[in-house]
Specification:
It is a single chain. Helix content is about 65%, strand content about 5%. By secondary structure, the chain is mainly alpha-helical. It has two domains: about 350 residues, no CATH class; about 140 residues, no CATH class. The longest helix is centred in the last third of the chain and has 27 residues.
Length: about 525
Amino acid sequence: MSARATKLFRHFLVVAAAALTVITVIVTRHWPLVGDALLTHYMAFLFDHGFAPYRDIVDMNMPGCMLFDWAVMHTMGPGAVAWRVVDGALLATGAAAMMAAAKPYDWVGGLFGGAMLVIVHARDGVDQAGERDLIVAVLLLVGCACALRAWRRDGWMLSLACGLAAGAAVMMKPTAVVWAAGMLPIELAAMRKSGGGRALRHGVAFVVGFLLVMGLTLGFLYQRHVLRDFFGTVTGLMAYHAGIDRLPFGYLISHLIPSSLFPVVLVWLLLAPGSVGWNQWERGAILFSILFGVFSFVAQGKGFPYQRYPAEAFLLLAVGIDCSLALRQGKWRSMAAAAVLLYCVAVIAPVSIAKASHYDRRDELSASIEADLSSLGGSKLSGQVQCLDTFAGCIGALYDMRLVQDTGFLYDCYLFHRPLTEVGKSLDDRFWSEMTTHPPRVIVVTDQFCYDETAGYQKLNNWPAFSAWLEENYVLYADRPPEGMVHWWAQPRAANGYRVYVRRDAGRTAGQG
């Protein structure tokens, strides 16, 4: 491509990236607060109502997850609109970090990568908003951009910022420690090679930033007298959760990226080996970050779309830089790069936005549960209601009604999962003790069970003693069968049903609601 054609094409990419991003924001602005973000919001809500993390709240997430949501709720509000703003701010921050990383080559490549991350994220579905791995991806993008700029400008404050970002990422997902352990020696090796004796100064700054985040987080847990509970969760529940319902390695490898990005990756693999203009250590840092994302996705083993974000973010950054460099190189390379960029703008983006625009804005199951709970006492049920659900919508109903749950058990994965392990047995024993000591007035059981969508209410049979206790002490108030489909992702799934049980001595009559 001629210099003039390249310049015009860059202008086109800037306008297209900006326009497509704005359209994506508009079509997703009314998405509800659902999924893992809702569960983490509810944890923060329980924290505000006297529940101690890791001691009273049974959860396998790192403390940064709850603290992030708590900060959002107390600064921007507890609702879905605030979370959409946060989701957009995360993506904007990631795009800015990509542009900073790509600046010596062509900042338009970073802008392109950021816009594509926004679009792919929207297509992944309603419940991917503000997910933990998205936050990790953005933090690592910021950390990587700071590391690159620290090397370019010899600014130790940037290495400090890189350490802070890496530490914050570890407090969101422990797998990020692998990125921190790899990025620091990569940066220091580049600095030693360039001379000047600055490696020690930057290394100390990185470590100080990293340890500062660790210290503040552990200090918070110590101040709340839950530090021992946290370490018990790390060695117990977190390890247990990582081992259950893992998908086969072959499935994980084949789902590392969305199928729509396959052509992009194939052309990029042809362009990348002969790419001219990269600083080799900077290229190595980004390629290492892609490999870390692959490792993180496989290590988690669940195959959720949001767990691909670290790999996708750095992959899109590399594609953007290589394509922007290829536009100025040989004829076939410039045409191949232009074809990839046009494919993203003219095919992937419109299809993704069209899909995102048709996703549901409703959470009908939560609304139905709210109606039943309102008829049973509404606000008087605070502290007297328990969900047996994973993420179908029961916790969403409690959060919308600002009802405190009877226990800190937010998921039923661990309660009915078999075969029973030592960790599972200890959780069963604890839940049994809490429920029998202080039986809630109302129990809501959904037909969703962890990652097994076929189990339905049969999950109760996995724990015969609890099932018998429920039948003996509670009467069925309502049995709401599934109705319709839920369209929160590219492939709609059948809606969930639920049953409401009322304690026999609570003064309610038996029968259908």
